[in-house]
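Duplicate of #3305? Posting structure anyway:
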């Protein structure tokens, strides 16, 4: 990969490496409250499936199947009840192994050459394909009947272009038709987030005049979901964006620098900024609280109103046993996987430890929790399913 003259601290090969690490860590999502809790006392391993290659995105659980893409493909759909292979998808194009998501009806996945396809979740049959012309290497966002798709000009397997203008697309999820597209001045856009009538999306842009020791130029857009008209644009030197979570009042984000930030949702002005204490892979949110883990083994719950702590929990089991990915909240319980393979559950309101289950699994990515199942993948490509059922 070519280095860009003058791009002293924000080399694109570093951005690509961070891209790999952060996609492995997982992305912010609007979490579903399915009211099915995990019980650490009876939680047991139901099955394991060996894909044969590393897995760099947390597997997705939808419609009684687990979907994953090992490095180099193909896409695999496994029965949640048994771990048996239901279907696989192996197109002639390369599957971007971090560029997919799913719901009960469809699996949406980015392919090399700027293509996005939709498959039936049940059987993997093609529903539609759309040529976007820009590559999709982060999971699209599904909201109701809409699909919001972020694109990139830098990432694994791509010839980097720091002058590229990445787009975010709003597509009809049923047929892939374009409702609108917004061209940014960023060369990379991360997975978007919706709150109220605003779509938040951001990423890095190239400006050799703004060189810093840690981080680099980044930009967040707040767009009207009806027509993509910009409501505001926020710029900082926080570097590569990891995750965005928003409420009606605030938009919060974490980027390369070890700070979590709160913006006014109406104006885009910075209203608070808090030191996380160490490296943070991602964050998630629930109403007016955000959750994240830092590499000093602390799990944080902060108020989106002012960034003040709601509670803090120090993981007791082992040095550097930090949270992988973003914690998952189900009703009043918070679940996460640690670097040493412990599944943990906290009371989401108080931060009190409910239970901890050591698995011994060394993973690169976070934990998927839904429908009474916990799904983990290890660094060698094995997928594990745990349940109380």
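Output from current build:
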């Amino acid at each position: 990969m070519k280095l860009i003259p003058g791009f002293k601290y924000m080399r694109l090969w570093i951005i690509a490496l961070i891209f790999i690490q952060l996609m492995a860590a997982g992305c912010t999502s609007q979490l579903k409250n399915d009211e099915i809790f995990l019980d650490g006392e009876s939680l047991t391993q139901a099955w394991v499936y060996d894909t044969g290659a590393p897995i760099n995105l947390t597997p997705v659980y939808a419609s009684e199947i687990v979907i994953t893409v090992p490095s180099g493909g193909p896409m695999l759909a496994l029965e949640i009840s048994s771990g048996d292979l239901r279907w696989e998808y192996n197109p002639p194009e390369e599957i971007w192994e971090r560029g997919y998501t799913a719901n009960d009806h469809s699996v949406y996945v980015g392919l090399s050459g700027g293509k996005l396809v939709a498959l039936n979740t049940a059987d993997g049959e093609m529903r539609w394909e759309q040529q976007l012309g820009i590559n999709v290497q982060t999971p699209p966002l599904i909201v109701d009947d809409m699909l919001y798709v972020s694109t990139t000009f830098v990432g694994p397997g791509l010839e980097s272009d720091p002058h590229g203008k990445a787009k975010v697309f709003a597509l009809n999820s049923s047929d892939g038709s374009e409702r609108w597209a917004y061209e940014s001045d960023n060369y990379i856009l991360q997975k978007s987030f919706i709150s109220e009538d605003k779509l938040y999306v951001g990423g890095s842009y190239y400006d050799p005049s703004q060189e810093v020791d840690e981080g680099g130029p980044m930009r967040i857009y707040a767009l009207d979901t009806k027509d993509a008209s910009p409501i505001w644009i926020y710029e900082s030197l926080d570097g590569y964006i990891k995750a965005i979570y928003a409420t009606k009042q605030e938009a919060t984000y974490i980027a390369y620098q070890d700070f979590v930030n709160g913006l006014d949702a109406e104006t885009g002005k910075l209203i608070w900024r808090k030191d996380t204490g160490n490296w943070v892979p991602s964050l998630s949110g629930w109403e007016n609280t955000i959750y994240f883990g830092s590499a000093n083994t602390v799990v944080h719950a902060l108020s989106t109103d002012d960034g003040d702590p709601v509670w803090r929990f120090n993981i007791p089991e082992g040095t550097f046993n930090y949270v992988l990915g973003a914690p998952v909240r189900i009703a009043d319980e918070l679940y996460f996987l640690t670097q040493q393979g412990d599944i943990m559950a906290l009371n989401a309101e108080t931060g009190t430890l409910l239970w901890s289950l050591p698995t011994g699994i060394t993973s690169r990515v976070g934990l998927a929790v839904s429908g009474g199942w916990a799904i983990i993948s290890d660094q060698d490509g094995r997928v594990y399913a745990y349940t109380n059922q």
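Confirmed duplicate; merging threads. The first strand starts at residue 44 and ends at 50. The helical segments are 12-25.
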